[in-house]
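Summary of Year 1 activities. Much of the first year was spent building the evaluation harness for sequence design. The harness presents a backbone, in tokenized form, and records the residue chosen at every position. We chose the following record to illustrate the format because it has been used consistently in internal testing since the harness was completed.
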């Protein structure tokens, strides 16, 4: 029996290891078109690799997937966060949990994860073929013939783990097989804002609450001001949940920021009035980063040396609104292709999520970002890759021992 896995990313490696482990008598081949597999693993988390996220319960975990959601319950029940932790621990890689729930190798180096995956395929005997781009799949009866520059042979079963394709036309080879595809759009991107005074604050990180007028979604947490606009977990999460809506807007919309997410708007003026005789620049009772505080004051055309008690009612309202309803025009996005993900892909309606097998072609399995599954930032996308890769690599066998 010959098994082929196409795609040398997180899901592909995981599927190959599991497949060869469960079926040691099979010949398992892993094809990767580049000479640098696991590229996204290498760069993720700033080179540290955000392996997963600490979620004790599946019911909690599935809430972090804009595409997939409740349908992933069976997937994560089969192989979840604790299974991931145990799997890497058995490979000699211990994970640590940071204050926000993200989990990284204790080495803080993605090389630890890459080395574990390479060791995994070598230990079980997977045949890894690099620099081999599969360009055609011909279904046989039974099996699948794979073509690169020439025929690579016929394989009894096939696992596709080629990752998010980004462009609609890149899925044409799957559509030709009769596989339904949800059109791809970017997810997890930052907002481009052409506001020189805001951009000059690049590097400032603070808490905030962000929403887009006319859309109910609200995200609260860390915001990062960059030289091109806004980034940070809050922006990335919002972009994930609203990936399709923002694509329809062609990434041109307004964004509203509350720089004081823990303070009610009607509390802002009384708090400032407690030090009414202080100069505003010295009256930063909200403990915002000073540069941001000065910017918000000046951006409402108020002098930093003015005192709250001397401001007109109109100026007080403007400053209060700047703190709680600061609005900017977004014109475009920035997506770092090595790290961020695609919304869209192979429709889950055509897959048995208990086995990851195609309902169209028996013997064809899917794993990873090629599927219409994506999570918010924080390790959730890698968890989906480990889980779907593990299940696909099991080829529908009952999983007794993880």
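For this record, the design step produced the sequence shown next.
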């Amino acid at each position: 029996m010959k098994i082929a896995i196409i795609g040398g990313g997180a899901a592909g490696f995981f599927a190959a290891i599991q497949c060869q482990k469960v079926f040691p008598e099979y010949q398992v081949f892993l094809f990767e078109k580049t000479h640098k597999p696991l590229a996204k693993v290498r760069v993720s988390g700033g080179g540290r690799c955000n392996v997963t996220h600490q979620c004790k319960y599946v019911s909690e975990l599935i809430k972090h997937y804009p595409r997939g959601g409740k349908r992933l319950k069976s997937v994560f029940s089969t192989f979840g966060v604790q299974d991931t932790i145990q799997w890497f621990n058995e490979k000699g890689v211990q994970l640590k949990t940071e204050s926000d729930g993200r989990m990284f190798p204790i080495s803080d180096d993605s090389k630890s994860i890459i080395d574990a995956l390479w060791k995994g395929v070598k230990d079980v005997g997977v045949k890894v073929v690099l620099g081999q781009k599969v360009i055609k799949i011909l279904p046989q009866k039974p099996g699948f013939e794979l073509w690169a520059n020439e025929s690579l042979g016929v394989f009894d079963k096939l696992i596709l783990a080629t990752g998010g394709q980004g462009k609609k036309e890149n899925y044409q080879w799957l559509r030709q097989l009769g596989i339904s595809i949800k059109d791809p759009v970017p997810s997890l991107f930052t907002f481009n804002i052409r506001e020189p005074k805001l951009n000059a604050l690049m590097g400032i990180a603070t808490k905030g609450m962000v929403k887009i007028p006319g859309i109910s979604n609200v995200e609260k947490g860390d915001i990062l001001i960059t030289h091109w606009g806004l980034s940070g977990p809050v922006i990335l999460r919002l972009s994930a949940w609203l990936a399709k809506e923002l694509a329809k807007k062609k990434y041109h919309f307004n964004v509203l920021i509350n720089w004081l997410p823990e303070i009610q708007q009607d509390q802002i003026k009384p708090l400032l009035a407690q030090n009414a005789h202080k100069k505003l620049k010295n009256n930063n009772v909200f403990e915002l980063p000073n540069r941001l505080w000065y910017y918000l004051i000046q951006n409402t055309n108020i002098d930093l040396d003015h005192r709250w008690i001397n401001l007109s009612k109109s100026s007080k309202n403007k400053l209060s609104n700047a703190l709680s309803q600061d609005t900017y025009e977004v014109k475009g996005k920035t997506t770092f292709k090595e790290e961020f993900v695609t919304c869209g892909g192979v429709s889950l309606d055509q897959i048995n999520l208990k086995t990851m097998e195609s309902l169209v072609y028996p013997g064809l399995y899917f794993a990873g970002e090629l599927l219409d599954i994506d999570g918010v930032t924080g390790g959730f996308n890698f968890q989906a890759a480990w889980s779907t890769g593990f299940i696909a690599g099991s080829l529908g066998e009952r999983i007794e021992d993880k």
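The mean pLDDT is 95. Quantitative recovery figures across the full test set are reported in Table 2.
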